[in-house]
Design goal:
alpha+beta, 3-stranded antiparallel β-sheet, 12 strands, 32% helix
Length: 258
């Protein structure tokens, strides 16, 4: 009987020791052990602009990370030098600062807080309209018409009209051009004048699609438009090219796409 009691106590103490050991290991690996965090490996780069006139925004990656790690990475701030007029092949220096108190709290040991990056993948401007793929030109026309269709009610009310918007019976691109900027910091664009035939009147609306380059993507998020304020002579003569020349020729080289 005494032997059985001794065996039971032995088993009990062994089990207790095992549980304590496991708890200590869990506490060490999850709460006490310093974990290395590669700051630059967790950085993402978003370039703005085109080859020769770009800048970059560096931020922490967002993804399937535990909450503690994401909180810490969100505290990281990146600085880039140089960060203007960037071209493909340029080398930029990226440095980072982080919340040291948060790093200590989570037992993180940051490393790689600075690095050099070679700029690549920036889009190039087209030299002229004839260099632009026909598929991109077609896509631009479709995007302009879609923009007008989606905004037809607000377009009709640009002049302060309060009555119910009449039905849009027909819309048509009556003028299309490629505008190549004379300024380095201003993007090239497609410009369209669209006639909008309502049941009561015809309106002319101008749509611009910026950032036309050899990325061959239509920047649908930055399409914008405005009413085409043609003079009476321009209206009478359907002189849409004269209107666009009057508005844009001081800043752009205009190539009409007939």
């Amino acid at each position: 009987m005494d032997k059985q009691k001794i065996e039971n106590k032995f088993i009990y103490f062994i089990s207790l020791l095992s549980m304590v050991t496991i708890l200590i290991l869990i506490a060490y690996f999850f709460f006490l052990r310093n974990v290395e965090v590669d700051i630059m490996d967790n950085a993402q780069y978003a370039y703005v602009g085109e080859n020769g006139n770009a800048s970059v925004v560096v931020s922490a990656k967002q993804g399937e990370l535990n909450q503690r790690m994401q909180d810490f990475l969100n505290s990281v701030e990146y600085e880039v030098s140089p960060n203007s007029n960037l071209s493909n092949g340029d080398t930029i220096h990226v440095s980072a600062t982080y919340d040291e108190a948060l790093a200590n709290q989570y037992h993180y040991q940051p490393k790689s807080v600075e690095t050099d990056i070679v700029v690549e993948g920036l889009a190039n401007r087209y030299h002229s309209l004839q260099d632009i793929p026909k598929a991109l030109i077609k896509e631009g026309r479709s995007a302009a018409l879609d923009y007008v269709k989606e905004n037809q009610e607000s377009i009709y009310k640009l002049d302060g009209k309060e009555e119910k918007t009449p039905g849009l019976e027909k819309m048509k691109i009556v003028y299309s051009a490629y505008l190549k900027s004379n300024q380095k910091n201003n993007s090239d664009r497609f410009t369209y004048i669209i006639s909008m035939n309502y049941s009561s009147e015809i309106l002319y609306y101008m749509v611009c699609i910026p950032n036309i380059n050899d990325s061959n993507e239509i920047d649908v998020h930055n399409i914008y438009g405005e009413k085409a304020y043609l003079t009476q002579d321009e209206l009478n003569n359907k002189d849409f090219s004269g209107y666009v020349d009057r508005v844009y020729s001081s800043k752009y080289q205009i190539e009409e796409n007939k």
